[in-house]
Amino acid sequence: MVSAPARGSGALRSSGVPTAVPLSSAAGAERRRRDRGELARLALLSALPILSLVVVVIGWDAAVRFELFSARLLPAPAQVVHAAREMYSDGTLFADSVASFRRALQGFVVGSLIAIVVGTLTGRSRIARGLLEPTIQIVRPIPAIALVPLAILWFGIGEESKLFLTSLGVFFPVWVNTHAGIAATRDDHLRVAASLGASKWLTFTNVVLPGALPSVLTGLRQGIATSLILIVASEQSGVTEGLGFRLDQARLFSQPDRLFVCLGALGIVGAIADQLFHQATRHTVRWAKEQS
Prior knowledge:
Number of domains: 2
Keywords: Cell membrane, Membrane, Transmembrane, Transmembrane helix, Transport
Number of helices: 10
Subcellular location: Cell membrane
Main location: membrane
Structural class: mainly alpha
CATH architecture of the largest domain: Orthogonal Bundle
Strand content: under 5%
Family: Belongs to the binding-protein-dependent transport system permease family.
Organism: Mycolicibacterium mucogenicum (Mycobacterium mucogenicum)
């Protein structure tokens, strides 16, 4: 009678069969390595904008220290920071930024609303397109800044001329994108809606609008930048506050440090406005893509 090997004997251990590592442990370790690599990559991508700004400031400071540019033309970063503190302390920087943003927002809203209405008409109606598009296409290549004398002649040097110029400049990019988005509605989608008995309003809100919305939002985003560009140009006459006014004053009195502060404020205001718009509309774009 053969007895079973006793526990603790070395019979099984001496068989030479290797002990396998559990698959779950190996997979978990691999997943953790991938997660660490992904986190490192995301951290690097997040740090790149800051690193690029640091490199620019270091290069800028080096150019001033080694006198590659005259200090009257390119102030040192420390001078710009000092000027920014002064303008912030006396309230001019905040007041000018708010005034410019308010004027740009007014022009953006007025120009965008008119452009969306006109773009919808020209995109949907051949009659409206024939009546309005030739005039728009003739006026569109004219830079809005070139119309400053005409705006002053018509509306004076007050707020009305600035609203006119900004609204006109915003109108064109928004109109182009709205018109293109509306006109690009697929005919087969329209035929399906008609065969289902959908009214014109239902067809517009459920077929035309979702398809055109990404294009319209692109035009609106371009309009934000355009409104800031034009408000700076229009603020150089007839006002006593605003970043455009302060830029012109810095030029007249040879204050490059204050000029750079105003340019930086414009960039920050524009970047914030653009990001706010992007964050506010990204869910709308997703909805439009799902509906179209």
